[in-house]
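ok trying this again, last paste got cut off
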Amino acid sequence: MAKEKRRPIAEMNVVPYIDVMLVLMVIFMVTAPVLTQGVKVDLPQVASEPLKTPKKEEPLIVSITKAGHYVIERGRSEDAAANLEYVQRFVGKILKLQPQTDVLVRGDKDVPYGKVIDLMTALQAAGAVSVGLVTESPKATGK
């Protein structure tokens, strides 16, 4: 009896790789919604126009200066900077007394995005349902 030489199998078994990929896909599908964070902002669906508010209601405007300081433009002098905790407490008190008050954020164009998000998160925690962003029209800047 002659021994027959066995040739090595040149095919790759991909079944274990498919199993690993399916497990990873399930893990990513479960964890992806948990990792998503954000601040709810009502975005306009059409070209924006100036807000029309009743004359007797003054909006609450919180500005972020180029240096990153927060300034409340209602009931305080415009040059007085405040920290984020004070802004949150102040806005919370105003919204408890006047829940229909519009809350607007005006930030310098050079302010880091994170500072604006920190402010919007604090305003949301203070009870602001929606927060508007103040901008200038391109015609007003002369560009």
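PB: full thing came through this time. The CA atoms of residues 104 and 132 lie 5 Å apart.
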